[in-house]
Amino acid sequence: MRGGFQPGPAEQVARVRKARASWDKALARRLAREQADQAAAATAATSAHKPARATADLGPARRNMTDPQSRMMALRGGGWVQGYNCQAATTEDG
Known about the structure:
Blueprint: H1 14-46, E1 71-74, E2 80-83
Antiparallel strand pairs: 1-2
């Protein structure tokens, strides 16, 4: 065999099928949540005993109010940690 391994279609790869199934589940959950939110908004709009509460604009979302320079950073082995992206700077003479 000169050509070596010839990959098949991506739809037949188990990881692709699993990722697609996970995506479909997440999409279904999101649609269900949006429908529930719309139904709740419609119910709240029809109820006359409580006025709708106004929400204040709080600006951009922050993960850590006490240390705004830190960010959620991905770990190599999977997962996340609150941390910094440190970069070393040196001069020509070290």
